[in-house]
Amino acid sequence: MIVIADASPLHYLILVQAVDVLPRLFQRVLIPDEVCSELRHIHAPAEVQRWIAAPPLWLDVRSVAAAASSAIPDLDAGEEAAIRLGNSRRSAGWIQERLSSAARRVATVAADELLYRSGHSRVAHS
User: Which terminal residue of the chain has fewer beta carbons within 10 Å of its beta carbon, N or C?
Assistant: First the structure.
């Protein structure tokens, strides 16, 4: 399956060192140029910047036509471009919400493991 991602799920999976799960789940992950730019942004964590500087073979960065104006308020450029890319590729799945949710779960498990190893524990899961 080919899927399209926004920056957030990639960002968090990179930070919790779980981004390698993606090629096990999906044949390819597509991102628009705007998402690539967000991951390279000077304010992105250094680990994220390093990862996108040498992207894996399963990540495919695509150019999409710019929209005349934003049809959906409150979207950043990467989110809007990912939606446009998804609309141009009807066969690709959309993983923003599913992957963001999965990234949050992976991050929670990773955080719990780090706390456990340091002798601490979390009180409750959200």
Answer: C
